[in-house]
Every structure is written in C-alpha cells, then in structure tokens.
Amino acid sequence: MAGATVVAGLLVTTVAPASADKNDSSPGPKPTVVLVHGAFADSTSWNDVIKKLRHDGCPVVAVANPLRSLSGDSAYLKDVLAGIDGPVVLAGHSYGGSVISNAATGNKNVRALVYVAAFLPEKGESAVDLSERFPGSTLGDAQRSVPFTNADGSQGTDLYIQNDKVRHQFAADVPRNETDLMAVTQRPVTNAALTDGAAEPAWKTVPSWVLVATRDLNIPPEAQEFMAGRAGAHVTRVRASHAVSVSQPGKVTDVIEDAARSVR
User: Can you tell me where the transmembrane regions are (predicted)?
Assistant: First the structure.
C-alpha cells in the first residue's frame, strides 16, 4: 500500500530488460522481477527499488494493480505474467501480497515469491481477517469511505486514508514533502478487495521471502511474523513503516535479489 501516485488506470509500467546494462558480470540471464503494489499506492511506489534492480542488471515489470477485487486483480496479474518469458520473481507489497499469492498458483515460471510488509493469506482468509487477528493496526480509524456506482449499477465503497493521517499511519519514516504528495495522489482500494477470501495460495509450493516492517501500523508486525512462519519463508526484519519500499528501497532490493539468486 505504499508510495507516491503518478500513474493511474489499469496500465502496466514496464522497465526495459536490463540486458542493455553493463553492470552485470554474473553468468546466465537473470529472472524477470515483477512488482505488484498494494492499496493507496500505484507502481511508482517501487521507483527507487526499480532503479536499484536495473543498476544491478535485473529485468523489471511494475504492474498497475487495479485494486478492485481480489479475484479480478489476480486474474489481471495472471494475464500480465502470461506475457513474460522465462523465470519470474514475483514481489508484492501489502494487499499486493494477496494478489501475488493467488495469481502465481499453477504458474511454473514463478520461481520465488517476495512479500514486502504484505499479506500471505491462507485459502479463505482476507486482508481484513489477518489485520484484525493481531493487535497493532490503526488503519480502520485512519480511513475514509467514498461510495461509488459500478457500470452495472451496483454499489461499492472505495477506501482512502485521510489526508492528514497518511504520514503517521502509512509512511512515518518518509520525508513530509513526499508524504504530502502521497496523501493527495493515493489510489483507493475497494472494501470488497480487502474482504474477499483468498484462493489456494502459491506460497505453499513456491519458495517465499518475507520482509517484515517492524514499525508497520497497517499490517501488525505480529501478523507479518505469523504469516511468514506459516509459509516457512526466509525472513528479513527492517525498522520501517508500512511504506518500506519508499523509505528503505535498498533493503527491499536486497531481499528481492536474494530471492532472484536462488532461481538462477
């Protein structure tokens, strides 16, 4: 759920394969790293991670997560993955963790999963279920709801973080000039997406890496530890807010590259 929002809509932001970069002296092609943002953000929340991955010679695709429903967002990501040749390291932040867990199931190209302050739901669990199972999340009190009408006439609810609470709730270790922009440009997630139950998760069969943000006010660190342990994941702990891909891009990149080395 992190980051400044510049690009909206259901587009895929791609970064050219890093074969043009001259910094990689290791043998063999590197897997493509696919990055999936969470709620209240867009793919630009990965910008500094992308720069570091490119510098190190990694091909990168940053996906614009629709944030409309878990099943629909997962189907969208599956289509993106179907267009990528070769091995993939799939990384998700926050709600994006639920999406990658669904979308990677059955995809033999996905060789590693990376969860960055993210959800690793079991079948049937929702993001809301997991957030409320452990103490520490103050997201509910920081949100505002905006009703909307779908094209078919049905009603839905978009969720935002109240502008004056974005820095404390979401990105306390990010400079205020950035969080002011993040507050204004955040993308909403539907209530339905956060309450949808997960499908059979890929982390049961695909090796997983988890970065736990120990100062997270959205997903309690205790919940992150529980999910990581249940998945048998490699765990890295970082003293950071929920917006760890913005505040600690180097640490996030290190975890992704560790996962990438395992599949080469």
Answer: none
Indicate the helix (H) or strand (E) that contains 81: helix 70-82
C-beta of residue 117 within 8 angstroms of C-beta of residue 39: no
| Size of the chain, expressed as the number of residues it contains | 264
Structure tokens at 240: 């950071």
Distance from C-alpha of 206 to C-alpha of 185, rounded to nearest angstrom: 34
Are 161 and 183 in contact by the 8 Å Cβ rule? The answer is yes
Query: What are the tens digits of pLDDT across the range 79-101?
Result: 999 999 999 999 999 999 999 99
Q: Which amino acid, one-letter code, is at 84?
A: I
Band the pLDDT of 29: cuts 50, 70, 90.
confident
For the chain, list the domains and their CATH numbers: 12-262 (3.40.50.1820)
Q: How many CB atoms lie within 10 A of CB 122?
A: 17
